[in-house]
Design goal:
disordered C terminus, 6-stranded antiparallel β-sheet
């Protein structure tokens, strides 16, 4: 420990704070304060301490001679600043400790890779998607309650045949039931009433058969009343034990009861519930009955509701056949089955009937159980890209979740708090799991569960302490309200509006936001349109604004899609609320959403905004909702070019952000799902808009041209150019006018995307315009220019040169991929297009002079380009393989012998230098040597492009690869001479497809130091007639170079005085001149 500091400090002005700043970091261990007039150091008596307090008269402030304050800063900490605060005027003290040596250079930055965040899989106990029996969780939850019914009976009571108040009071409940005893006065209406309650467990099969036979006897001529009664019987029997529905199917033929005239909306709704049962779906799936439904659908007398129900009924019958087949075998119609399951999940009775079928029908249970359990995560199914394992997991998950909801309903009905809390906790957990979230929120929109959530969050009495179930219920409501489709349901809106403070989980701000959204949905279209056109001065979109906007968009979309006059009502509401058109306003909102999203993915925003996952999720979801509304609107409302340009720019920004979500938000599951939906909608809307016609015939530019031009310009400023290949169409009419933007866009793509765009252009153009050929020529020109710059740079290794090498490497990679993927087109272009041949030959010549080669196997590319060049010269078609090489080498030595010898020698040396060359390269090397030995021209008895040492390496390589019967090849190669007098190829230059530099070196890439300073060329005042003419001002071209009098120099005011003469003012043939001392701001002083 040593003395670090001694001194006296005084506070600043009237404050009680003094500060010290040290030149080096200090590690302080002791602070020693001395009393006034004390001598701290014996060897320095002239140093005297001084301490003076603000209250000198107060003796309590007198200090003892020395006070020590020990400090423990820790070994890893030091300081360069010390702040003293207290009631003092003067204070002397000393600091003891050690100095900390500073590093001579700042520590180098070493990038690290952040660990991947993998989601924790669900426990098997609550993961029905990966269970052989998806109902095991519901069965275990039922065991928590005493005297709980079996799961099939609970499904029947909670979803289908709901008990009355008297049933709950029955001592035998839930095992009470009705018998099938009837008398001779039984009619169809009474039969329907009999089976509207659960049957007794002991009901005999004979009684069921007798009941079905009696119903068959009661059927008379076709009528609407009879159709309604039979449909009601089918619906009621579908939710009973399976034998009852089978018995009715055996005795009642639908074609004998129903026809297009007797089927009304009521009967169709009964049948829609009935065919959720597998047996009844098979029974009603005959061609005759589906033909009756088709007639009902096409009848001009049927109203919209009847047609909608008939369409759903036909789809449900058809989807059941596909579902039964898909449970056992592969299918390409999984989306049809999933659509049917989701449709069934919108109605409680249909859901209960379908769930009973999947639990009680042994054939369906067996088919589902035969599928293996993959133990894979469940994914949301928003598209048709579903394989068999994912489909089976979805079906199991839907069954398991629906069964758990049954347990929730039963526990809530009998008031079993423990089971209800545990069930609600599982439901809340599923809301946070991708895949389960969609199913759970879908079932939460059912009427009874909206009511149960309302009852759960309502306290038993005023001032009652919060219950755990109520707190979980608030969390479920908060999560469910993020989906605007849930707020469209009236009962859920009532639940939201019933929220009153104090609440356990939902804050007051969130409650007001939910209330605002519910009121907008309640008020309907005009209130929603007001929110769409709402203008705010605040920058950016807040969470509250996004939630309300999404509800408003959902209301407008529902009105537009479901109402017969929806288009007219939406347009009228837009014009009544604002003078601005609906399409421009929606495009403006989409632009605002994309701009806000871009801030979260941009590297140029400073300071970067905080990562708000919920805000990003709502932005993507709002963008998807806007696109979902714009898709139908753009088909019926006019879209002008200006709006089209704004729309495409917004789509490019939104699309580029969707490609980065899975890498930025790895911890989130909801954000990638929302971005994927928005990504696909972007592509769908761009395709649709590019096919539209202009709003007015007078518009010259077609919208597809506006779309493509805007897309090319915006994509160059974006992070992702993938949308380009989605809309490249109408090539003959669009692309020729966009060659400039297309060239600039093509220049900024990487090699892989260049090949993809080039392949699309080749197919779309089909040789009509030659767009792809023109782009290839331009790329070869740029490559040639880059190689020349590399050659001029010599051995320099500046950042600019490194960037040039990287650029050349990428362009070579593009050529290599193009040769491999479009070899036939490349060869045809090489033969037919002279500019391609000339530029490729220049590239090969310059490349040999530079010596470009790459560690990533660009040797194959050089060989391919060489063969292609020789094929051009000799008019040889080939497929880029060894047999082609054999045919190609049989050519006249007069073509380009020097270039060929160099290429062959370099190829042999390159293959010999590889550690493990491919078989094709070895065979090619042997073919080259055989051709050299067989060629009788004296120009090919020697090799060039390599040294004698290189030749020995090739000889060792051949000895290691040739077979015994090919030993003559090695002997013959030894006879070949190596001519070192010829110009050898330069040393290879290593190229790389990646460039690692520091941020400070980025300007050097675009602005290299060696920029020539412009200078004015020297010339004579009167050049020779046959010599070069030096022209300075543009108007000098008007005068003869021999007119030496025009070069007179004026001084001071000579020129101005000369121009005052009358004769000079009459000459107006020459241009006005400016005096030497007159500038644009007037005479100089």
């Amino acid at each position: 420990m040593k003395l670090l500091y001694w001194g006296t400090v005084r506070p600043e002005a009237a404050s009680d704070i003094a500060a010290l700043r040290f030149t080096t970091p200090l590690h302080i261990t002791l602070i020693r304060v001395f009393a006034s007039e004390a001598q701290p150091f014996a060897n320095c008596p002239e140093i005297v301490a001084s301490v003076r307090h603000r209250c000198d008269k107060d003796k309590r402030n007198a200090l003892v001679p020395t006070i020590d304050f020990s400090m423990d800063m820790g070994a890893d900490y030091s300081t360069r600043l010390m702040i003293i605060k207290g009631s003092f005027q003067v204070l002397s003290f000393a600091l003891y400790g050690d100095t900390v040596s500073q590093p001579t250079s700042p520590p180098s930055y070493e990038p690290i890779t952040l660990p991947a965040v993998n989601p924790v899989p669900l426990s098997k106990a609550i993961d029905p998607a990966n269970a052989a029996d998806p109902t095991f969780l519901a069965k275990n939850l039922l065991k928590m309650m005493p005297d709980a019914p079996p799961l099939p009976l609970a499904i029947r009571l909670m979803y289908c045949l709901k008990p009355t108040d008297d049933d709950w009071e029955n001592e035998t409940f839930p095992y009470h039931g009705t018998s099938l005893e009837f008398n001779d006065e039984l009619d169809l209406a009474q039969a329907g009433d009999m089976i509207s309650r659960p049957l007794r467990r002991e009901t005999a099969e004979t009684a069921i058969s007798a009941f079905a036979s009696r119903v068959n006897d009661l059927i008379g001529s076709k009528s609407r009343t009879q159709s309604d009664n039979i449909a009601r019987l089918f619906s009621a029997s579908a939710s009973q034990i399976p034998s009852l529905a089978l018995a009715l199917c055996l005795h009642i033929d639908p074609e004998m009861v129903f026809d297009a005239q007797t089927l009304d909306d009521s009967a169709l709704l009964y049948l829609l519930d009935a065919v959720a049962n597998a047996d009844l779906a098979r029974h009603c799936g005959s061609e005759e009955f589906t033909g009756i439904l088709t007639q009902c659908l096409e009848s001009p007398t049927s109203d919209k509701d009847t047609k909608t129900t008939a369409r759903r009924l036909i789809h449900r019958i058809h989807a059941w056949n596909i579902l039964e087949e898909a449970l056992s075998n592969m299918s390409d119609e999984y989306d049809t089955c999933i659509g049917m399951i989701k449709d069934i999940g919108t109605e409680e009775k249909s859901l209960g009937i379908w769930l009973e079928s999947m639990v009680l029908h042994q054939d369906l249970v067996t088919k589902l159980a035969e599928n293996p359990v993959p133990s894979a995560p469940l994914y949301p199914f928003s598209s048709s890209c579903v394989n068999h394992d994912e489909f089976i997991a979805y079906v199991r998950a839907f069954i398991g979740v629906a069964a758990v909801f049954v347990v929730w309903a039963w526990a809530d009905s009998i008031g079993h708090d423990e089971c209800r809390e545990r069930t609600l906790a599982i439901v809340r957990l599923w809301q946070n799991v991708e895949g389960y979230r969609e199913i759970t929120n879908h079932l939460l929109s059912l009427r009874q569960f909206s009511r149960r959530l309302k009852w759960i969050i309502t306290p038993d009495y005023d001032g009652a302490p919060p219950r755990r179930a109520g707190c979980i219920g608030e969390q479920i409501i908060s999560e469910l309200a993020n989906d605007p489709r849930a707020i469209e349901h009236e009962l859920f809106r009532e639940t939201i509006l019933s929220l009153t403070p104090p609440l356990s989980f939902i804050s007051e701000g969130e409650r007001t936001r939910l209330r605002k959204s519910a009121l907008v949905a309640d008020d309907g279209l005009f209130a929603a349109m007001d929110e769409v056109f709402f203008k705010s001065d605040r920058p950016g979109l807040s969470l509250r604004r996004l939630h309300v906007l999404r509800v408003s968009l959902a209301t407008v979309t529902r009105e537009f899609m479901e109402n017969e006059e929806g288009e007219l009502r939406v347009v009228q509401a837009a014009w009544d609320g604002s003078s601005m058109g609906l399409l421009p306003q929606l495009i403006s909102l989409l632009t605002e959403v994309s701009n806000d999203l871009n801030k979260h993915f941009s590297l140029t925003v400073s300071p970067p905004p905080p990562i708000e996952s919920e805000l990003v999720h709502q932005l993507f979801s709002t963008g998807y909702d806007l696109l979902r509304l714009l898709l139908p609107l753009t088909l019926v409302l006019p879209l002008i070019p200006r709006s089209t340009r704004d729309l495409v720019c917004a789509l490019v920004e939104l699309f580029s952000c969707t490609g980065l979500t899975r890498s930025v938000f790895t911890h989130s599951t909801s954000i990638p799902s929302a971005s994927d939906a928005a990504r696909q909608s972007c592509l769908d809307l761009i395709r649709q808009v590019s096919r539209l016609k202009p709003a007015a015939p007078s518009v010259e530019k077609p919208l597809c041209q506006v779309v493509l031009a805007t897309l090319l310009e915006c994509s160059m400023e974006s992070r992702d150019g993938d949308p380009a290949h989605q809309i490249m169409r109408l090539v003959p009419t669009v692309l020729p006018s966009l060659l400039g933007p297309l060239k600039a866009f093509f220049r900024v793509l990487n090699a892989e995307k260049k090949v993809h765009v080039m392949d699309r252009l080749i197919k779309l153009d089909d040789g009509v315009i030659g767009i792809a050929e023109w782009l290839l020529i331009e790329e070869l020109k740029v490559l040639l220019q880059t190689l020349n710059l590399i050659r001029v740079s010599g051995s320099d290794n500046t950042v600019h040169v490194m960037a040039l090498k990287c650029h050349a490497s990428i362009m070579l990679q593009f050529l290599a991929e193009l040769v491999r993927t479009s070899s036939n087109w490349f060869l045809a272009t090489l033969k037919d297009v002279a500019d391609v041949h000339v530029n490729l030959k220049s590239v090969m010549t310059t490349g040999r002079a530079v010596g470009f080669v790459d560690a990533t196997d660009f040797g194959d590319l050089i060989a391919d380009l060489t063969i292609g060049y020789l094929a051009r010269v000799q008019n040889v078609e080939h497929a880029w393989d060894v047999p082609v090489l054999r045919r190609l080498l049989v050519w006249s030595a007069a073509s380009d012998s020097v270039a060929l010898r160099q290429e062959l020698g370099r190829s042999l040396w390159t293959v010999a230098g590889m550690e493990e060359p491919a078989i094709e390269l070895v065979e090619g090397a042997i073919v080259i040597v055989e051709w050299l030995l067989a060629h009788r021209s004296p120009e090919f008895v020697g090799l060039s492009g390599m040294t004698i040492g290189d030749s020995m390496k090739v000889e060792e390589f051949l000895e290691s690869v040739v077979m015994e019967d090919q030993a003559h090849i090695v002997r013959g190669f030894k006879k070949l001479s190596t001519d070192e007098d010829e110009v050898l190829l330069p040393e290879p230059i290593e190229l790389s497809t990646t460039l690692e530099i520091q941020l400070k070196d980025i300007p050097d890439i675009f602005y290299p130091e060696s920029i020539p300073v412009p200078s004015t060329p020297k010339g004579t005042i009167t050049p020779d007639v046959l010599g070069s003419v030096v022209v300075s001002p543009p108007n000098a071209l008007l005068y003869s170079p021999m007119a030496s009098t025009l070069t007179k120099n004026y001084a001071n005011n000579d020129f101005r005085e000369l121009r005052q003469a009358t004769s000079s003012r009459q000459n107006t043939s020459r241009l006005p001149s400016m005096h030497v001392d007159v500038g644009i701001h007037g005479p100089s002083t």
